[in-house]
B9 domain-containing protein 1
Amino acid sequence: MTAGAGGPGVFLVAVNGQIESGEFPGFDDLYCKFCFVYGQDWVPTAGLEEGISQITSKSDVSPTTLIWNFPIEITFKSTNPSGWPQIVVSVYGPDFFGNDVVRGYGAVHVPFTPGRHKRTIAMFVPESTSRLQKFTSWFTGRRPEFTDPKVVAQGEGREVTRVRSQGFVTISFNVVTKDIKKLGYDVSPTDMQTSCVPITEGIHKY
């Protein structure tokens, strides 16, 4: 079987859209970073794997919402749907002392079905495990954060990390796939109704 996406058994997934907005009560003047995490069989062929937005502030028009409208665009090729790409978003802003600190981490899979989609990600931040650590991090301006935000999507070691929910980020996606059905894969129509479907539920081999 030969697919037209650049070689035998290869399919393409093209993604564009934008990180539209965030809601972080009590915080303002925030910016976001994004990066994609994907399996070993996936290769980016065009676009950007990571980026950083402008700083945005709340306004009278949207007193509770931070508007970024920051574009994302990337194309992948793969031979295997396992390791379907995820986008990891990190939001940062100033603390009381003016230091940039993380205000939220979150991740979501790129939608499995072609078309337009919107996802709202529940964000979280790591927490200090003791009162002394909390006071020290507040006093020094060095809050707990991940050295590599990609661990948010990988899950390894996450079970021992203490976190708390903080804020939401909304992302819009426009997804186009090519030659995925030629390889015998079909996407479940229920994916359109869910915010994030595990790879084992969203794709079936027939």
